[in-house]
Amino acid sequence: MLNNFKDSEFTILVGGQYATDPVKVVNIEELINIYNNTAVVNLSEKLSAASKVERKKLKDISPSFLPYGNFSYRENKSIVSYNKEILAIDIDKLSSAEVSIVLNILKNRPGMIFCSISASGNGVKALFRINANHYLEDHYYILKNNVKKIAAALGVNNWKIDTTQFRLSQMFYICNNRFHFNTNPEPLLLDLDLTAIHEIKEKKEKQQKEFKPLSKEQQKKITPEQLEKIKSVLNKKLDRISKKLDPTSNNRHNQIANFRFLCQYLHYLPPPEQQNYFNACYRLVIKLYGSEQDAINSDAERSLKDIFNENNFANDNEIDFILKFS
């Protein structure tokens, strides 16, 4: 699902750079409120004054968020909804004088939602509203290939924008240090070059067409011992999905997209086992909706079937290892 600016959703995490499980999903105003929370402000002051070693410890208890949408898990393929008008900016390795200059430039640019000095103190992080980017699939490549145009539009040509922050599930530490915000800015207009993206998209489509899932003959060669190990791997993925489902959410239907995380690996299994996993997933959908009738009325079963029939296959390194060495 594509979110317009006012509907943008941000995934909150806690637990440092390795945090993967969302704590909550918030809107723009709620995100700004978190930045201005007294506890966050106090923690930000400690981060700014801390040594490198102490800063790492503080980061492990600091909140962070995923700028580009609502994620059921911190990985690209677990995105539930995409913020098509959001751009996250990170410029680091600055001198103290440059920090002030860059902060002053960014806080006065069109589209500025917020900007602040980073936790390290030698960089600036900012969030911008841009004219809509509808290319979720090619999100990172579009932004990375247009970084010079983005820098020019922001007025920061003399500094290097860290393109890592363009990655779809890249976290953004919450630090209130000389914090400036505007919850309703006019969008920053970007004229992005999509030429190279079409070439990348064609290459990816070709790779997808050339990817061959396990054939029936290969499936028949899987030993009972291997099958149990494969199912153990898949059960962990299913359990992870189960823990993410929230029956109290107003967006129950969007949560069905979480099952893509499992479906892409079911080609390792023979059809009867694939059906067993569909049945297990559907039981979770019924639990999500409270009753099978509510799930049927909401067209949830059809949505789940559509996901199972997408045939967007992928390799799993752990399963490949099982097939090769066990």
Please tell me about this protein's structure:
The chain is α+β, with helices and mostly antiparallel strands and 326 residues long. It has two domains: 2-196, no CATH class; 214-325, no CATH class. 44% of the residues lie in helices and 13% in strands. The chain contains 14 helices and eleven strands. Strands 3-2-4-10 form a four-stranded antiparallel β-sheet.
Please provide the ordered H/E string of secondary-structure elements: EEEHHHEEEEHEEHHEEHHHHHHHH
Output the structural class: alpha+beta
Evaluate the radius of gyration: 22 Å
Count of extended strands: 11
Percent helix: 40-55%
Strand content: 5-15%
What key phrases describe this protein's structure?
four-stranded antiparallel beta sheet; single chain; alpha+beta; 13% strand; 326 residues; 2 domains; 14 helices; globular
Précis, in short:
The chain is an alpha+beta fold. It has 14 helices and eleven strands. Strand 8 and strand 9 form a beta hairpin.
Architecture blueprint of SSEs:
Blueprint (H helix, E strand, L loop, with lengths): L1 E2 L6 E5 L9 E3 L1 H8 L2 H12 L2 H8 L3 E4 L2 E3 L7 E5 L2 E6 L4 H12 L4 E6 L6 E6 L9 H7 L1 H8 L17 E2 L6 E2 L13 H16 L5 H5 L3 H21 L15 H4 L7 H19 L2 H6 L2 H9 L8 H9 L1
Parallel strand pairs: 1-6
Antiparallel strand pairs: 2-3, 2-4, 4-10, 5-6, 7-9, 8-9, 8-11
Helix pairs in contact: 2-3, 9-14, 11-13
